[in-house]
Design goal:
Length: 285
């Protein structure tokens, strides 16, 4: 096992164990600007005379631990061809008109505005995308995709990001085209994004309907794994007694125990500051 793979496995283990993830994180490498994907990676059309939608490839990677490269000839769905810059869709062309009519919006004027926002790479027939389990890639990925199956899992990742950087997550939600929204915006902006899987990902690729996709640019990933685990560990420590029993049950009660700084603020504001202290700021450090 290479040093790179071993290191990623350690961080993946920490994230999977702390969040109780259903799937291991996926690594994504994008090849463009004249870069070409190495021939050594499995490609559906070249190696099996098969074509797949990109969402199906993601599911194969998630469930079969495969590393797969997609070039122009491999795709069986139209939006990745557009987003990855593999085909011509110039304004005024027949392809552009078809794009407008099939973009999920009946108002063609608004659809045209949506088309302008759709993430795309510059046009190049050699553009490609490589997807595989993070700890099986032998290249440094551009992105890490984390498929969460509860909104709380996504919440902890957002919390881990804010803890270290102060940043919150900006999401541009569409109900279709999650293949591109989960990859290109995070890649192009260098910021963490969240995406809703689209109907095709559910119907064609078997993606469970309860999943969200958290897209993490590689430079954030390792520290984010550490900070997400820390946030969860701190929460568990504050909510549990030393013997492991729960201090606070998940039930709606008035005058519940609060963090100590609540009482301090209430004292400053002239409000009731006599609540039971659940945890202090020092315990959070």
């Amino acid at each position: 096992m290479s040093e790179l793979i071993s290191e990623y496995k350690e961080y993946c283990d920490a994230l999977v164990d702390s969040l109780k993830l259903r799937h291991r994180p996926l690594g994504v490498k994008i090849y463009h600007n004249g870069e070409t994907v190495p021939d050594k990676y499995w490609r559906p059309y070249r190696d099996a005379h098969e074509n797949y939608a990109m969402c199906q490839i993601v599911s194969k990677v998630k469930n079969e631990d495969m590393v797969i490269a997609l070039t122009k000839e491999d795709h069986w769905c139209w939006k990745p061809l557009i987003g990855l810059g593999l085909v011509d869709v110039e304004k005024g062309s027949e392809a552009y008109d078809i794009f407008l009519r099939n973009n999920g919006c009946m108002d063609l004027e608004q659809s045209a505005a949506n088309v302008e926002m759709f993430p795309r790479l510059e046009r190049n027939d050699t553009n490609a995308i490589l997807i595989g389990p993070l700890e099986k890639l032998d290249v440094t990925p551009d992105l890490v995709l984390v498929y969460t199956n509860t909104n709380q899992q996504a919440r902890w990742i957002v919390g881990g990001l804010k803890y270290r950087t102060g940043k919150t997550v900006e999401a541009h939600f569409d109900y279709i085209d999650s293949c591109m929204w989960s990859t290109l915006p995070a890649y192009l902006s260098g910021e963490v994004k969240i995406t809703i899987p689209d109907p095709g990902e559910v119907q064609r690729a078997g993606c469970p309907e309860d999943e969200l996709i958290v897209s993490i640019p590689e430079p954030y990933f390792k520290q984010l794994c550490i900070d997400t685990k820390k946030k969860i560990d701190d929460q568990n420590r504050r909510l549990n007694n030393p013997d492991g029993t729960v201090k606070m049950k998940a039930e709606m009660v008035p005058n519940f125990p609060r963090p100590g700084f609540y009482n301090k603020l209430y004292e400053l504001w002239g409000l009731n500051a006599n609540g039971t202290v659940a945890w202090s700021e020092k315990e959070r450090e």
